[in-house]
Amino acid sequence: MSGGIESLAGAARPADLAADVCVIGSGCGGATVARVLAEAGREVVVLEEGPDRTGLELTQRDAEMYDQLYMDRGGRSTDDLAISVLSARVLGGGGVINASDVVPIPHGVLAHWRRRFGLGELTDDALAPFAARALEDLSASRVEEAQINRANALLRRGAERAGLRGEVMLHNRVGCQGMGTCLIGCPLNAKRNPRFVAIPAAVAAGARFFTRARARLIEGASAEVKAVHVRTLDARGYRETGELVVRAPIVIVACNAVASAELLLRSGLGNAHVGRNLILQPQLPIVARFAEPVNAFRGIPQAYAITELEVEDHPEHGLWGSRVEAIMGTPGIVSTLMPFVGRESERMMAQYDRIAASLLLAPDAPSGHVEAGEHGRPRIRYTHADEHKARLRAAARVAARAYLAAGAIEVLVPCVPPVVVRGERDLSRLDSMSLRPASAPLLSAHQQGTLRMTGSASSGAVDPDGLVRGTRGVYAMDASIFPSSASSHTMAPILTMARYLAEKLAARSG
Ligand SMILES: Cc1cc2nc3c(=O)[nH]c(=O)nc-3n(C[C@H](O)[C@H](O)[C@H](O)COP(=O)(O)OP(=O)(O)OC[C@H]3O[C@@H](n4cnc5c(N)ncnc54)[C@H](O)[C@@H]3O)c2cc1C
Ligand code: SF4
Question: Can you spell out the DSSP letters for 457-491?
Fold first, then answer.
């Protein structure tokens, strides 16, 4: 069979399709399993709600790119509007819009999964070849010294002066020219994400990818052949224009943790754990103002992390604590994250070239809940735990100490009211910063856990093969399966686990 990428944009009644495997979602999980199964000789159809955008179609314009590359145009949030829930809607998924940081699953996390979730077969030895393959597919390398921009260098200098542990991160860029717009796509195609690695390989092996194709319902989950009901979308992805059915004995959901759970719930599939145990890893930005230009918008945005407070083998939680990572947003992102309007906002943005920013990242306990909401969109319920807020406050102290040590005039947490730190004596102000719903620009980029994998049916939605319990031949192979935070960054862990599960499936169904 000859593979390819076909847009169904605007199609009213495209022909129904049949295959051995229907994969829903073409991101880190979906593209990987499509490749493995196509290379194992299966006929694979992949459905992707987003468009295919590469090269100069990635225009570096905020509004246009949020509209075209992000789920719900970047406007998705928790029910109480406390946390912005960001994920991709584009061929290749999150890899196209993410910050390209590569952090494999720590050993302590695997040990936690074995101990706490009965996943005994996930030993370091069993996963090592898959983790290595993920790094190879990502062309992962340490960011080179010459590529570390001034904003990242300042955070590192401050951390070193303050005696804080940190590291230059691994990334998946090749041929990067430091244009700085990774979060809205790379016009140079410099990210070695699924769009340029797994998808071309899957197509070469015969997989067929259909874009602007939204899976709405999976029918016949216990039948030999399932029917996936699909709606086509218009070219901009605003309206549904037509429908078709894909029939396959094996269906793999890989729509990202929120959308995968929502699709199963809407289809009435799985056990009582479907949609529960959502992990959001809420992140909080922090900004430092310097007297001289930093030009943080030039170069690789996220290259250095302070890991002083991070714990990889917490006995109760696995990955825990917090970390601080330099980052920079485009003017559109920065201005919307700042709690200022009018003149104040103007004054702040006039300093755009003098600010450096970081994200405070802290893993959270699985506690949220996805529901199938109205109008075919998910509802995300999540209560931001006081304990998590405390770890964010501790991370803010670490970031502020580093920035002050690097010579920042002031450090600001953009919550309402903003917290401003101008010296060591002000650090205690961070302990009282408000993190009430909608009073701080909290965001989630690493949703996980809604179909968590466990050894026992009484504690999770999918079994150690990725099979959705209560179905015959419906699997989950994306971020939804992680029973606790897989890493501070999820792309490499998903590539690892997706290949591991897909190879097992190929061997079983061969
Ligand atoms: C802004 C941002 C920055 C990030 N930075 C990093 C980073 O630096 N390093 C890192 O490791 N991770 C990062 N991540 C996280 C990482 O990219 C994601 O965890 C990862 O992409 C999730 O993989 P996935 O396979 O679960 O889903 P995705 O890669 O999100 O793919 C899911 C795909 O399914 C499609 N889809 C959804 N519903 C349907 C449907 N009903 N029908 C058809 N298609 C559907 C979506 O359009 C999407 O393309 C970042 C994420 C974001 C949002
Ligand atoms: S920093 Fe590198 S990877 Fe990011 S958008 Fe620019 S060229 Fe692409």
Answer: TTT-SB-TT-BBTT-SSEEE-SGGG-SS---SS-H
